[in-house]
């Protein structure tokens, strides 16, 4: 089956859209390489871009389940596998490009992975992604059984966290991007905890989650800078209140959460209107 077809073999607009979306970053990297616009260190730039997109797609794959409930969009489950596989492909490209940068000296690549902690955990995350990709097929679900398969694929959570950790450690100065990724991860995990605790997916609950996630992001950013650079945490926290420094990750996370609040509010209102019409028809 083609990746943009549904199980019946028909074209799925949703799957085609997501397929084009996950392929686009790779094509963009190739276009930059072909036109010589990857900078003075093109391979290094390609390494960073492929790694960044792997983490972004990992987070996007984890967003599928929350968005199904928030937007009442059950068909999104059809594209979760595609997004996860794409994340693994970009992670593999990330490693291959690193080997290229090392002039294909595999002994050096292995030794660097073993000796440099940020490379060690990055490689561990890659192995986990490959394992999830290999077992993502329908045949493997039947072979493992749904319960065992679900337990195995919950490893996506620690794998994503380790990938973000790798992102933090390889970033030299400005950690805004990994902080942003960590903030989104906090929201995604918070949503799952909210569901497990029995909270309804409603605008008020999502509003609280957006605010809590934003605050947690600001605190984690301040903790990182205070621990790793010695910059006073209070200065980092204050920067979140001054957009003259640019929009900080905490604010982006909060705004993304508020967008989902709005989406859910529209869904709830439409659902209430639909139930009202049905009740009116039944009363006639």
Keywords, separated by commas or semicolons:
12 helices; single chain; 284 residues
Average pLDDT, to the nearest integer?
91
General shape:
globular
Question: What class would the helix/strand composition place it in?
Answer: mainly alpha
Major β-sheet profile? none
- Provide the domain count: 2
In quaternary terms, these chains amount to single chain
Instruction: State the end-to-end distance.
Output: 48 Å
Q: List the helices and strands in order.
A: HHHHHHHHHHHH
Helix percentage: over 70%
Please summarize what this structure is.
The chain has 284 residues and is an all-alpha fold. It has twelve helices and no strands. The mean pLDDT is 91.
Structure description:
- It is globular and about 75 Å long.
- By secondary structure, it is mainly α.
- The protein has two domains: 169 residues, no CATH class; 114 residues, no CATH class.
- The longest helix is centred in the C-terminal third of the chain and has 35 residues.
- Keywords: Cell membrane, Electron transport, Flavoprotein, FMN, Heme, Iron, Membrane, Metal-binding, Transmembrane, Transmembrane helix, Transport.
- Its main location: membrane.
- One of its GO terms (biological process) is protein repair.
């Amino acid at each position: 089956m083609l990746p943009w077809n549904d199980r019946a073999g028909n074209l799925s607009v949703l799957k085609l859209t997501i397929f084009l979306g996950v392929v686009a970053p790779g094509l963009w990297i190739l276009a930059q390489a072909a036109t010589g616009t990857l900078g003075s260190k093109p391979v290094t730039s390609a390494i960073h871009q492929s790694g960044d997109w792997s983490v972004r797609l990992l987070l996007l794959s984890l967003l599928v389940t929350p968005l199904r409930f928030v937007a009442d969009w059950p068909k999104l489950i059809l594209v979760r596998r595609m997004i996860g596989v794409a994340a693994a492909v970009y992670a593999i490209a990330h490693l291959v490009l690193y080997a290229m940068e090392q002039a294909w000296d595999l002994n050096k690549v292995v030794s660097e992975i073993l000796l440099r902690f940020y490379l060690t955990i990055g490689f561990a995350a890659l192995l986990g992604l490959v394992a999830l990709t290999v077992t993502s097929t329908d045949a493997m679900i039947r072979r493992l059984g749904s319960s065992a398969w679900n337990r195995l694929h919950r490893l996506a959570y620690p794998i994503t966290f380790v990938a973000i950790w790798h992102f933090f450690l390889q970033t030299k100065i400005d950690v805004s991007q990994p902080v942003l990724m960590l903030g989104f991860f906090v929201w995604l995990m918070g949503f799952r905890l909210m569901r497990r605790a029995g909270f309804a997916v409603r605008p008020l609950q999502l509003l609280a989650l957006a605010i809590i996630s934003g605050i947690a992001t600001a605190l984690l950013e301040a903790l990182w800078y205070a621990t790793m650079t010695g910059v006073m945490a209070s200065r980092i926290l204050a920067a979140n209140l001054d957009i003259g420094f640019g929009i900080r990750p905490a604010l982006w996370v909060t705004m993304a959460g508020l967008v989902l609040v709005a989406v859910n509010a529209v869904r709830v209102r439409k659902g209430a209107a639909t139930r009202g019409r049905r009740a009116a028809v039944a009363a006639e």
